[in-house]
Amino acid sequence: MSAGRLGSADFVVVGGGIIGLSVASRIRRRWSDASVAVLEKETRCGMHASGRNSGVLHAGFYYSADSLKARFTRVGNEAMSEYCRDRGLPLDRCGKLIVATRPADVGWFDELLERARVNGVDLRRVDRREAAEIEPRARTVDQALFSPSTSVIDPTSVVDAMVEDLRADGVSVHSSTRYLGRDPGSVRTDRGRLTAGYVVNAAGLHADRVARDYGFGGGLRILPFKGLYLHRTTPGPSLRAHVYPVPDLQVPFLGVHLTKAVTGGEKIGPTALPALWREQYEGWTGLQLHDLFEIVNTEARMFVSNASGFRHQAWRELRKHSKQALLRRASELVPDVEGTHGWAWGRPGIRAQLIDVDRKALVEDFVLEGDQHSLHVLNAVSPAFTCALPFAEFVVEEIDRRLGMP
Predict the structure, then answer these.
(1) d(CA 351, CA 362)
(2) d(CA 114, CA 130)
(3) pLDDT in tens, 254-271
(4) Cα–Cα distance for residue pair 221/363, rounded to 1 Å
(5) Which terminus in the chain has less CB density within 10 A, N or C?
(6) Cβ neighbours around 351 below 10 Å, total
(7) pLDDT at residue 319 tops 70
(8) E strand or H helix at 187
């Protein structure tokens, strides 16, 4: 390939997931005269975490008020819902019921209600009769919580619409273009060099590697977690609302839940099992030995030290890594899902979870690092899809600030 085949761009975004596309859109709005290019290694955008997302737009009551997730989730829910309405994309504002499977769970309701109050999120305590009116199939002990603003969308439709909008606005979206590395004043790809003014790294599972090319993310590494859902394959009763358990607020996973699909189906999950390499979707496909050794080594150290409760979380996830186990967990929330007939595994997803290697700790909030030449989204954990639009505005403000640095 000849150098310069891709030309040049004032801003280059590496990664065509929901975060990269949203950032490219906001850059275009902020600097309307600037040229913007998005690099995506797959044949189309959103083929990893964004396209394998559950589609749930979260309300924002799980997160402590001092977190960026709390700052962006409620606003992001509203912004993404408005985008779907404006573009005529599927949107179901079905709500979420958080049920108690044992009396001790009810004790956590006050904490969740307080977080909702501080974050400005509508979250209501309901009794068993009201819970049955919201979702007749759900089981709860004494009372439940209801989030009316939690909804569900079709992530693939959103990604496709954003790509269409970007191209209409003059943004170059280069699919089948793999980032290979940094050169002075440019980025290398498998289709040649692209002269780059400012680089934004939104590479998801590979964000830590791209960041190290620019001197950032030194003590941070991506640890992949595989998520699997069971999808209903035969006709059955339909959920009116999502049904979730009371979460363990000490870990960044929400537990096994039942999610209503925007098409009317339903699914159960997810698992959150540590993956052995970054794109370990099916069997040994895509295995990279360097990736395997690096990640297994990190996971082994986390397991031995039990940092962030990693060992306990891993054992818990291993115990539910079967149809029977997931359905058994789900039946505590919705009793009529017992039995493996009529359920099949859907496409797996991989969550890019950042860890602080020195502290051996999971990083649970968004993380940005950068300077006058590049900015790196090192951690865009759940609910990143919900947060994408206001978070992208935050990223652009950070770029603007860094470009103005002396």
Answers:
(1) 13
(2) 21
(3) 788 999 999 888 999 888
(4) 10
(5) C
(6) 23
(7) no
(8) strand 186-189
